[in-house]
Amino acid sequence: MTWLNQVQHDHRQNKKRLAALLDPDDLPTGRAWHQFIDRLEVSPITDVFIGGSLLVRHNVTEMMQAIRERFSGAITIFPGSPEQVVPGADAVLFLSVISGRNPDLLIGRHVESAMKIRRMRIETIPTGYLLIGDGPLTTAAYMSQSLPIPSAKSEIAAATAVAGEMLGMQLMFLDAGSGAQQPAPLKAIAAIRQHTSCPLIVGGGINDAPSIQAAWHAGADVVVIGSAIENRPEDLSWLPDPKEYQHTSTTDAII
Which one has a higher pLDDT value, 83 or 242? Predict the structure, then answer.
């Protein structure tokens, strides 16, 4: 079963997933790095996403190899640039920033990387990427040169996701951006969930267990944690277990 097939299966069964987003530039090194991966392995994390808006210091290939050797879950590339796509991952999110109007991130970078990814034979998943938030400016918004969807405009988020699904996107990724002061609004998550049928990934600004559970409850299939893990890599005990998630629908109330 491919990674997308597994996520789609979990979506149909209302089983949740929890992903750690690891930015090669913001992680421990040496022995602390291997100890960190070992903590990921015994934590509730089901998936590792690798990527970032910048790439300054670390070699993604070496990072991939180390995680593959010590982590038994799925590894997916969440690329900030074509250079971050390297062999060894289970899948790569082929991201189109559908919330923006930057042609480079709607088709330009895709043309640059398509043949490279095809030669690697990595599962490639068309993913509609939606930035949302009201500021201050996040790295993702700055690097993508695109305006986020305003937090109060859940109807725009839903319409954008519907358009992405009609264009053939197989996943939606709603992101408040790395280090965002506020996570993606629950109303926006619920609105996208109500109007689309593909799995929904949500990340950015989520830094505690109640926020993770609230995003799951609003309709996220995969919640992504980045900065909160990078800021305290020595302690992952606060992460909730997606296997213990119990769903009771409150979507109508959220909307």
Answer: 242
